[in-house]
Amino acid sequence: MTETMKKKGKTLGQIIARPFLWFFTFAIPVFIAACYGGYYEISDAGGGANQLSATGRVVNAMNGASIAQIKVSCVASGYVDGGDNVIDSTYSLPGDGHFELWYTDDNPCDSLLFEDVDGAENGEFASKTVQFDDTLDETIVELLHPLD
Predict the structure, then answer these.
(1) Which has fewest Cβ within 10 Å: 24, 25, 46, 117?
(2) Mean pLDDT over residues 107-126, rounded?
């Protein structure tokens, strides 16, 4: 009968671990709230804007190869070079030249501006602005080398 009986006393590890587990169970949410703020739900009762994206690829017009590190900007209507109508900017990715930009219904993207900002590092390409068409799933833009 003594073989089947379990020891009912707590081990030293259990005695020490229990207060630490209790502390961390209650302390971690406090630290998260202190660092990131409390949880709150954003109400969109006023019919706010939808978050939309413009995706596409940047390729070389001569051979169809993808081009990385091209600055792509989503600009609002009335954009003037160096102006403040840029809604979002990103760079085309290595590999497939993919890009993704974000805009909203109430701040729409009117055109896409493509700029080679790294110079001759991946080949020189002329800047180009294209009218943005939100009905397309993907915008493919071909860039040419600048005329000398």
Answers:
(1) 46
(2) 84
